[in-house]
Task: structure prediction
Amino acid sequence: MAEKLHPKIDNGLPKESASFSGGTLVCLCTSNPVKVKVKGQIAHDHAFRLPAFGAAAGVVV
Result:
C-alpha cells in the first residue's frame, strides 16, 4: 500500500487550469533581484519529509 503524504495529492494531482497565462516570479533581494519567467504550469512537491531536520530546525513543509 502506498504511503499517504498529503490529502491534496494522495488521490492524484489536480488537472491544469485552462486559464493559466504565466507570469514572472521575483525574489525580494534589495540588489540584483532574480526574475524567473513562468510560461507553463508546474507541480511543486511540498510533500516531502526531512526526518533529520523537521520543524525543530525551522523547516516548514
Observations:
- The beta strands are 23-26, 35-38.
- Residues 33 and 53 are 29 Å apart (CA to CA).
